[in-house]
Amino acid sequence: MESPPPRVERHPGNPIVQPGKYPWRMATVFNPAVHYEDGVFTMFERAAGQLRPFICYIGMLRSTDGVNFEHVSDEPIWTPEMTGSAVGSVQDPRIAKIEGTYYMTYAYRPFAWESHPTGIGVPQSYEPKVEGFSGDPNENMTRTGILKSDNLRDWEHFSWATPKELDDRDVILFPEKINGRFAAFRRPLQLVGDDHGTDRPTIWISYSDDLVDWSEPELVDAPKLWWESGRMGASTPPIKTEHGWLLLHHGVDIEDAETKRVVYRLGAMMLDADDPTKVLKRPEGVLMEPEEYYEKFGLYIPYTVFPTGAVVVDGILHLYYGVCDTAIALGTVPLEQVVDWVMSA
Fold first, then answer.
1. Are 162 and 185 in contact (CB under 8 A)?
2. Which of 160, 199, 238, 241 has the fewest Cβ atoms surrounding its Cβ within 10 A?
3. What is the third-level CATH fold of 17-343?
4. What local confidence, expressed as pLDDT, does residue 17 receive?
């Protein structure tokens, strides 16, 4: 019988990282990548200085306690112009250290949307009218790139993890190779229907020998729970446990399609260590859902908790998550309790 999920304790100082200070992050900061090494927490935030156009950047912060973060630079460490378009957007980084090298996946849109929050649900967003863009959404799909660094501070664009013909994000690298190959979760929007085994966008996995050429995506699992009526996707880098890979995943529940009222929640599953397409355990319950005021009401998308950073320190899982696409919060829970809950399913 499935056990009740453990309590993720919200930090009393939440949200711990808020917008402001620099022009490029005055509107929102959210969905960070976080890496822990040698007693230092390094955070890479997604930030925007305005909503129209909603151009996002990646900023870098550090902390020795995991709570009080300071910027290492008054400029972003990665911008859409560095990828190829000054009017684009770079979003939702995740980080992995593989065989001594740091890699960061990030979503890239060549032309940033014009966004108009409604206060109810997903904002009304429009393709921009800018030089060089026809306005065709098929020419402005999200593609995922991979950055590479030897020191966590200086980054270069290394490769593309997804083709430009697919709208593909939530691409997350495993922290180690599987059977000698790199592995990454994906969430391609177009792979839905009877031929693909899912009627909603969901989690897939691909493999690569060199982080350049990737295998065709293989289905991990499809949305099927009440809180996944819209779609699901991988949230944080997977964590290796004695039972296999612990994957934290988000589910989007559509409460009202007309107003685009949605709720983002967090679940978990355990995947086979050697073949992550095999789901060993998957609880029906949720690990996190909007509870606090700052998780329910914010600038961009109300009722959203969206963890993208997860680090384990002394057995405690630190979850860094975007709240309402507005700010960054921290939740903690013993890793053992999460694993026990997942394995009880």
1. no
2. 199
3. Tachylectin-2; Chain A (2.115.10)
4. 98
Radius of gyration of the chain (CA): 19
Query: pTM of whole model > 0.90?
Result: yes
Residue with tokens 């999460």: 338
| CA–CA gap between residue 340 and residue 208 (Å, rounded) | 32
Residues of the chain with pLDDT under 70: none
pLDDT in the model for residue 36: 98
What separation, in Å, do the N-terminal and C-terminal C-alpha atoms of the chain show? 6
| Residue 99 dihedral angles phi and psi, to the nearest 5° | 50, 45
Distance set, CA 156 to CA 43, 61, 83, 136, 230 (Å): 17, 18, 9, 29, 35
